[in-house]
Structures are given as structure tokens and as C-alpha cells.
Design a protein that fits this description.
The structure is a single chain. This protein is α+β, with helices and mostly antiparallel strands. Helix content is about 25%, strand content about 40%. It is built from four helices and twelve strands, in the order αβαβββββββββββαα. Strands 2, 3, 4, 7, 8, 9, 10 and 12 form an eight-stranded antiparallel beta sheet that branches. It is globular. The chain starts with a helix and ends with a helix.
Length: about 200
Amino acid sequence: MNVVKGLMRGAMALAIAASIAAPASATTLVRASLDELVAGNEAVVVGEVVDVESYWNAEHTFILTDVRFSVSEVLKGNPRGELTVTLMGGRVGDLTTLIIGGPQLFPGNSYVLFLNEESLPGVQAVTVRDLVQGAFDVVMAKDGLRAVSQANSHPLIADKQGYLDAPGGVEGFPLTALMTSVREIAARPHTQREMN
């Protein structure tokens, strides 16, 4: 009987360990190409996060976070100066709402953001609609500034062409090359039609 109890305990421990080790990701993202990110968003900007503030929506049903973003370069659209980007999730008091696959934006850091106006819980706001795929960290590398997709930290489902890697891969794009590419894609006539 002790052998059976031991096997049951072992099986239970294994089941618990497997559930802990299983990925917690509930957000499934199909890989978006750079062309799709540019065409699918109203604005693409480069800049720095000034401030972050989390709060309850008006109905007190969901936590949102406003990110004050100082725009240094507009690659598509017409935002100028400083804008507010609203993200789902955040921390208010002892309560945290975490959006798996959501972009991570921190004060003092620079980013390339793909932005669109969307309906969020209780509010219409400018947001990073494509989650981690719509946020590129601007980082210093040995060859200069690079823009690295935050989607590198989240598993993606292959797109129609079978690509799995985020645009730019783990090393990202040279920042100036990404900026040039986004401007060129945004200027294509078909991209303008897709946005209307």
C-alpha cells in the first residue's frame, strides 16, 4: 500500500511541476511583417517615455496605464510633441493586471511604436494595438542605435510565408534603416488605400 501511495504522490508532484513549467501565455500572436505593422496602424513614432501612470477605468472594471511619450520622429501619421499612449493592464495599489504579450514601456527608455486608436475597456484611446509586435526597443549596440522588436520575447505563430521571427530578428534593425523602411512603406499608394 505504501508503494501505491508513493506512486500517487510522485504522480501528483509531477502533475504540479508540469503545470508550473507550462507556459502561462494565453495570448496567441500571428507574426506580423513590417509591411503589415505599417499598413495596419495610423501612426509610427520614435521617442522616449516620459511618465507612466496606472488607474482604474471609469467603470472600475479594468486597470489601464497611460504612457506619456515624447515624440522625436514621426515616421507615419501626424502626432507631434508629446502624446498619451494607453495600454491595458498595470498596477494600482496591491492589484496588478498583467496582459500576456503586452508591450513593456518604461520611463527614460526610447522606443519605436506602431499606434492606432482602438476601443479599450471603458475608453477610446491611442494604443499599441499589436501588443509586443508594435513596440521596438531602441538600444545602443556596438554598431550604433538599433530597434529590436519586443516580440522576440514572445512566441509567434508563423505567418503565411512561414516566418516565425519578429521583423529584424533578435538583433533588430539599425534604427536609421528601420526609420527609412517605415517611411517608404507608408508612402506606397496601396498602404494609403489600406488605411482608409
